[in-house]
beta-N-acetylhexosaminidase (Acinetobacter baumannii), 337 residues
Amino acid sequence: MSYTIQQDTYAVLLPAFNDLNIRNIAEPFLRKGGCSILLGETREEYVNRRMNEKRINIEKKTDFIDLFCWAKTIQPNLNVAIDFEPYGINRLDGKVDLEWKDLNNISEKELYNYYKNKALALKQLGITMVLGPIADIITGSNPWLKDRQIKTTSYNISQLVKIFIEALQSLEIDCVTKHFPGYNHLEKDPAMEDTLLTTDKETIISNLVSFSSAIKVNTAGIMLGPAAVEVFDQVNSASTSQKLINFLKEDLNYKGLIVSDDLDAPAILRGKSIDEIAVQALNSGVDLLLLSSENDLDQIAQYISLSVASGNLDRERLSNAANKVRNLSFKKNLNNN
């Protein structure tokens, strides 16, 4: 099946909504070719690493099911994503409770069954994708990942990543492992201000073991980090760096979906407009662009289209990215028919 440029421009966008009142924005987005949505959280919830009690008490399972049924009448091949981090943000449960799970003592079978049950609950709601697990191995301070990732051995993180992905994807819940290439130490929060990963290359390569584990078990996607990585490309953020993306594809032999971090982050924008950053990310090899639904999605899509028309973005690159996104939901529909 062939698609128009407009359909492709919307297909590569992943708008994040901070509540379930998405219909006014989501309906035209889906009708124009959008096929992915993220049910995210408010800035306050993100900072607190937990959903507020009011949301937890108000939102019901039937609200999610009804919303996704409505959305799929417009876009049958829909990717529905949420944030789900083993030790951090959990969009549905408020906050993941893994305090009782000492990774040094818990069995792999117990951990697998725990996540298999989580996956079953997600599937019953209609969730098809999670932004998780976090594969960053923390060795220093990191205000960005504070209370989102546990400090433990690289082996423990690698095993957690592996088991998380295997359990969820066994029930066709796609996992987007994050944040490549791994941020062991950051002085500032890249979601709040521009910053740079200054870790030496030897350490970065050593800490890739958790991402290698994810790739070995066929993680559906990998999300790039927000901050620039000095030893690869100190000019462009990880989410817009062709050098870093080429490294992911060629050195780690990764062939799956590549997702940007939130394009609204100061560390990604670095003084540019979000329109420019969207095109730069696509040119660099990103397939799916995460951004707030509060942006003018039509304006961004139009800018991408005009970039194709002017030759600033290759038509085939856009088409390949859009098809990679669509193929995730296509495969599920084929398997369920």
Remarks:
- The domain at 5-336 is CATH 3.20.20.300 (TIM Barrel).
